[in-house]
């Protein structure tokens, strides 16, 4: 498998060989989660839950089906999703009077209930989230975790007394995101989407983007401020302190199994997955290296080591299968286990444990007596180094350009000035065949000229070929 040569083939082979997904289910774009992949996703979900619970969001679970009548209440929203919706038109032998759709996202499932739940300012802010499956009829080439038709999805929905409080929620979402991305060792950019690319029905959308091979970008999630765009059609109002009736301001924050896809794509290499320690089902694999005459001793010492690590709360697997050590190395490298420990008779005599890092291949040894502390420190170091390496990759994926005069569009993210006019933006997109991802949410100092019309501007934007 060669990541550099053919990313698509490398990715598609790897996700199956490493046991993350099984694409043989007889519906295209709807894959099975085998145990190993689902475990990793569950660690990601656990971190999401921790962050959301710590910021006073409540977890809920809404029905999968949405009546067509509710779905049609917000007109931009319908336009954005109409072509992607799966419909349920029959119940048993009867055709339904009002067809039902499988949620592509849950605004129109939740908001009729919000209108019932919210009465007064005392009910606000309302902050809820759910982790559920959503459905979108993708017509482009499907790709495990990145473009699928049944999506493992996270969505938080909040309601606020006014625009400023909703804005504070957006800022809180950025903190939640940063904490999660630290665990996944993923660098990202917060880019405010263009008007023609924002979420259908949103006041504004901030995309969370990371870089993949050859200048591709992958949207990991998005955060939206809705203002009153949904509360008006859904009639979500509250009585304010002064007795007046007002519409709530709303936000949403969505992420999906793409987080796992990006972990694969960003960190993986030609040997397989490279998992960040925080989400690795096994953080450490122990491979015994027995020789003639010492099989029992080595095996007993390896089990002792496993039990100690386990008792210390480190997720560890001891591979006692009959395969040769080389085959075991290969297998666990493919699965991305961050740290391998090897134990042979000579190590035991010397009072050491040999190690090999999955991320950079570095080898060395720990004193047996300090192994718990050393493993912990090493797992932390691996996470820091993985994040730094991925950040360098993102930085190297970006080049600044000040004219459209190139023979071939580079396989990079382009960074350039833009006057903000849609006409210019469209022209640049057509000329480069890239998508304008948007301008940095946290403004970057910039003085230059619009790539489209040449006017002076202090707005900088990024554009890339989306995955
Ligand atoms: Zn312009």
Account of the 3D structure:
The chain is an alpha+beta fold. It has 3 domains: 7-267, BirA Bifunctional Protein, domain 2 (2-Layer Sandwich); 282-385, Rossmann fold (3-Layer(aba) Sandwich), CATH 3.40.50; 398-466, Translation Initiation Factor IF3. Helix content is 34%, strand content 28%. The chain is built from 13 helices and 23 strands. The chain has a 5-stranded mixed barrel. A 5-stranded mixed beta sheet has the order 14-13-15-16-17, with helices on both faces. The longest helix is centred in the last third of the chain and has 26 residues, at 371-396. The radius of gyration is 25 Å and the shape is globular. The protein starts with 6 loop residues before the first helix and ends with a strand. Residues 419, 421, 424, 450, 452-453, 455 line the site of zinc ion (ZN).
């Amino acid at each position: 498998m060669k990541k550099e040569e053919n990313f698509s083939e490398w990715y598609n082979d790897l996700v199956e060989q490493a046991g993350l997904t099984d694409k043989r289910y007889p519906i295209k774009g709807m894959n099975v989660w085998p145990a190993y992949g689902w475990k990793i996703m569950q660690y990601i979900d656990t971190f999401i839950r921790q962050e959301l619970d710590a910021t006073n969001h409540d977890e809920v679970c809404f029905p999968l089906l949405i009546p067509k009548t509710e779905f049609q209440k917000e007109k931009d929203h319908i336009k954005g999703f109409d072509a992607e919706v799966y419909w349920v038109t029959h119940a048993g032998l009867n055709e339904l009077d009002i067809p039902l759709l499988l949620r592509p996202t849950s605004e129109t499932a939740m908001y009729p209930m919000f209108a019932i739940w919210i009465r007064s300012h005392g009910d606000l802010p309302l902050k809820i989230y759910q982790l559920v499956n959503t459905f979108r009829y993708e017509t482009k080439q499907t790709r495990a975790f990145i473009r699928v038709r049944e999506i493992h999805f996270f969505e938080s929905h909040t309601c606020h007394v006014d625009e400023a409080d909703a804005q504070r929620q957006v800022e809180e979402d950025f903190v939640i995101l940063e904490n999660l991305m630290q665990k996944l060792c993923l660098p990202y950019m917060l880019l405010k989407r263009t008007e023609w690319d924002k979420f259908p029905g949103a006041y504004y959308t901030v995309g969370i983007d990371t870089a993949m091979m050859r200048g591709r970008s992958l949207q990991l999630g998005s955060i939206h401020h809705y203002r009153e765009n949904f509360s008006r059609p859904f009639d979500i109002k509250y009585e304010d302190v002064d007795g007046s009736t007002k519409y709530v301001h709303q936000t949403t924050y969505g992420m999906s199994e793409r987080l796992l896809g990006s972990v694969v794509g960003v960190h993986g290499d030609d040997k397989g997955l490279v998992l960040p320690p925080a989400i690795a089902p096994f953080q450490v694999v122990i491979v015994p290296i027995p020789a003639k005459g010492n099989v029992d001793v080595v095996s007993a010492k390896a089990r002792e080591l496993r039990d100690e690590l386990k008792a210390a709360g480190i997720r560890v697997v001891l591979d006692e299968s009959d395969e040769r050590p080389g085959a075991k190395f290969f297998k666990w490298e493919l699965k991305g286990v961050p740290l391998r420990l090897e134990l042979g008779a000579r190590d035991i005599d010397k009072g050491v444990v040999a190690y090999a890092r999955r991320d950079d291949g570095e080898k060395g040894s720990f004193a047996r007596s300090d192994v718990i502390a050393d493993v912990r420190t090493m797992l932390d170091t691996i996470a820091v180094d993985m994040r730094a390496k991925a950040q360098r990759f993102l930085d190297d994926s970006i080049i600044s350009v000040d004219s459209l005069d190139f023979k071939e569009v580079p396989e990079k993210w382009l960074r350039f000035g833009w006057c903000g006019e849609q006409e210019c933006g469209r022209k640049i997109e057509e000329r480069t065949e890239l998508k304008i991802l948007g301008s940095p949410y946290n403004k970057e100092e910039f003085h230059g000229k619009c790539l489209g019309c040449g006017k002076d501007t202090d707005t900088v934007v990024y554009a890339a070929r989306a995955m």
